Amino acid sequence: MRLKKAFVSGLFAMILAGLIVAGAGSAEERNPPFPSYGSGPIEVRIYSDYFCPPCRATEPAMEPILKDLLKKNAIRLTLVDVPFHPHTALFARHFLYAIKVNNDVDHAFRVRNILFEASTDKSITTPERIEAIFKGKGIPYAVFDAKSAFEGYNVLLKEDNINRTPTCVIIKGGQKQTFVGGPDIVNALKALQ
Questions:
Q1: Most exposed among 23, 54, 108, 127, judged by the fewest C-beta atoms under 10 Å?
Q2: 95, 111 in Cβ contact below 8 A?
Q3: Residue 13 contacts by C-beta under 8 Å, 6 or more apart in sequence?
Q4: What is the pTM of this model?
Q5: pLDDT tens digit string along 69-86?
Q6: Distance between CA atoms of 72 and 77, rounded to whole angstroms?
Q7: Residue (of 61, 142, 49, 62) closest to 91 by Cα position
């Protein structure tokens, strides 16, 4: 477990070190979009990796429940990409590029579904390949320095002590509960309905 936590922290450190920072930039560049939705009293954090088969299977089951809870203003949802796979950072960056143009939850889930599907093709390992998929699917995107978003991910990963995916953290009434694995996550989310 410690090795995996060190790996996650180290991987995000490498991602951050590898990002090109082109000066201070505008306020919008300094505060990029973050995949967080809703304003309900219960906080829900979903941790997944595009290359995790259980995550790929769980996301479609969670999506309608999460959308229902958001519609009822019951939750605040944050989607966090966990870099357990070497290409997760590339996919996570492109997810952020897409939500920079449209940070609506329906759009976010559409983009995530496209990226989950793309992760099954082992030849998709470059920005150009993902951008070609986005263009083919009509997904607008804007490239920007995603350093602060990755820093936000890193804070949550450490705060919630994430070492497996899929994981869901629910904070309700000051109490934090962690659920790991698709069936447990889906059941926990249904209990919030």
A1: 23
A2: yes
A3: none
A4: 0.85
A5: 999 999 999 999 999 999
A6: 13
A7: 49
- Give Cα 143 distance to the centre of its chain: 17
Q: Does residue 138 come out as left (phi exceeding 0), alpha (psi in the -120 to 50 range) or beta?
A: left
- Tens digits of per-residue pLDDT, 108-148? 999 999 999 999 999 999 999 999 999 999 999 999 999 99
Q: For 176, what's the count of Cα atoms within 13 Å in the CB-facing half-sphere?
A: 8
The 3-state DSSP composition of the chain as helix, strand, coil percent (nearest 5) reads: 55, 15, 30
Q: How far apart are CA 149 and CA 32, in angstroms?
A: 7
Which residue spans within 17-174 are E strands per DSSP? 36-37, 42-48, 75-81, 167-172
pLDDT at residue 21 in the model: 33
